[in-house]
């Protein structure tokens, strides 16, 4: 059984829920603004070997965003 934590970029979250990235950004900002999650605990800044930096978000935030986005995929994720 895997024990690693899931971390995803905004674009990966958008692809998973089949929505545009702007909707994910809006949902993430709303989660932080409403105090549902603290940014420090669910966002990390990582740098890959290609020297490109990415912000990645934890599974907790991915789940919270699922409740803020209305798509077939996000509904299926919530039901899971």
UniProtKB/TrEMBL annotation:
Phylogenetic classification of the source organism: unclassified sequences, metagenomes, organismal metagenomes
Name listed for the protein in its UniProt record: Uncharacterized protein
Organism: human gut metagenome
């Amino acid at each position: 059984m895997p024990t690693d934590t899931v971390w995803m970029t905004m674009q990966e979250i958008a692809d998973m829920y089949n929505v545009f990235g702007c909707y994910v950004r809006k949902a993430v900002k709303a989660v932080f603004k409403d105090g549902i999650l603290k940014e420090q605990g669910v966002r990390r800044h990582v740098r890959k070997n290609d020297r490109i930096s990415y912000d990645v978000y934890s599974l907790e935030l991915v789940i919270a965003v699922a409740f803020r986005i209305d798509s077939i995929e996000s509904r299926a994720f919530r039901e899971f």
